[in-house]
Every structure is written in C-alpha cells, then in structure tokens.
Amino acid sequence: MATAVITESKKLPRPGRGGYQPHGLTEEEARVRAIAEIVNSMADLSRKNQTVDLNALKSAACRKYGLARAPKLVEMIAALPDSDRESLLPKLRAKPVRTASGIEVVAVMSKPHRCPHIATTGNICVYCPGGPDSDFEYSTQSYTGYEPTSMRAIRARKQLDYSLNRSREYHFKFYGIKGQLDQQRIFMI
After folding, report:
1. Which of 6, 9, 12, 141 is deepest in the core (most CB within 10 A)?
2. Mean pLDDT, to the nearest integer, of 29-43?
3. Which molecular function terms from Gene Ontology are attached (predicted)?
4. What's the pLDDT band for 171 if we cut at 50, 70, 90?
5. What is the 8-class DSSP label of residue 103?
6. Higher-scoring residue by pLDDT: 15, 135
7. How far apart are CA 76 and CA 154, in angstroms?
8. For the residues 79-100, what does the mean pLDDT come to?
9. What residues contact 48, with CB distance under 8 A and at least 6 apart?
10. Would you say 139 and 130 are in contact if contact means Cβ atoms under 8 Å apart?
C-alpha cells in the first residue's frame, strides 16, 4: 500500500494584505515608519520641484511595510516637519467640502439642562435620549453623546463655549483650512 504524504501548504502572507510583519516590526511601528518615509519622499520631491504622486508613495510604502490600509491624511499632516509644512500641506489637504464657500461652520454645545417636561409631567420625553440624567454620560438633550460635537463638548466638560470655539479654530488652522476662509458661523446647540 502506498502511503500518501499530504503536506499542508500554507499561503504566506503577502505585503499589503495585513498580518505581514517585515523585520519583526509591529503593525504600529511599520505604520510610523511608512508615514515617515512618505513624508520624507514628499519633502525631497518638493525641494527638487518635481511632481508628488501621493497615491504612488502611499502604495509603495504600504507594500514595503506590509500595511493592510494606507495611512490617513491626518496622520501624515501630523508628521509634517515645520520647515516643509507650507509647501507640503496643500498636497495633503482634502477637498474643501465644508469650507468651499469660504465660511467656516463651527458647532458648539452648551451645558446640558434637564428636560422641561419633568417639572410638568414628572417624566422625560421618550424621543429625547440625552440630558444630564440620561445614560449617555453628559450629553445635551436629544443627543446621544456620540456625535463629533457632543464628544468634543464632553471632553471639554462644557466649561467654556469659547474654549470649544478656539479648539475648532486650532483644528482648522492645523489642517491648513483657516487661511482660505472669509467668515465664521457659530451654531450653539
């Protein structure tokens, strides 16, 4: 009787498919190195006045370091050196969807108050999930606390609306949007 030797062939993980760790790097270390390589390549090409193909740089770095997903623009903006920030920021900036009209929209939440119906009926409204008495930590009435504005307000503990506004202005300036705006609209929620 012939014995058949069955060998199980495992597919080796390929770069760019996740799970691949070249040179013993963790996923986070590989991500940091890939971002640094992308930013350095962009800076070198920009200094030589050559065109920067961001997608090609990102895919090459992902292939080299075996990343499952490409680094986000925000991660690359945070890694920009101050010396090259002005020249590289326009290449990394996303399309101006919210600020295309030249108006910056800032939503600021005020301190949460209890539902006014508690005083009259003794019960809260069924359709208003939030408020200081709700399960959603410290959210404003009719908000769950998981909206971006709600999360910023919870982090700031709604001490000053001014500080939240300054925080949003800093984010717009950091991402290179602030210089293009004509006016600011503030919505108090």
Report:
1. 141
2. 91
3. 4 iron, 4 sulfur cluster binding; metal ion binding
4. low
5. E
6. 135
7. 27
8. 76
9. none
10. yes
Bridge-partner residues for 107, per DSSP? 187
DSSP 12: P
Is 80 within 8 Å of 92 (Cβ atoms)?
A: yes
Nearest residue to 73 via CA among 100, 41, 35: 35
DSSP strand pairing (103-108 vs 183-188): parallel
Rounded to an integer, the average pLDDT of 152-175 is 64
Residue 107 to residues 104, 128, 129, 167, 169, Cα–Cα distance (Å)? 10, 20, 20, 11, 11
Give the pair of three-digit tokens for residue 90: 């326009």
What's the confidence (pLDDT) of residue 33? 92
User: Hunting for tokens 């971002």 — which residue is that?
Assistant: 35
Q: Provide the whole-model pTM.
A: 0.52
Q: What is the DSSP letter of 133?
A: T
Q: CA-to-CA distance for 21 and 19, rounded, in angstroms?
A: 6
Given a contact cutoff of 8 angstroms between Cβ atoms, the answer to whether 76 and 39 are in contact is: yes
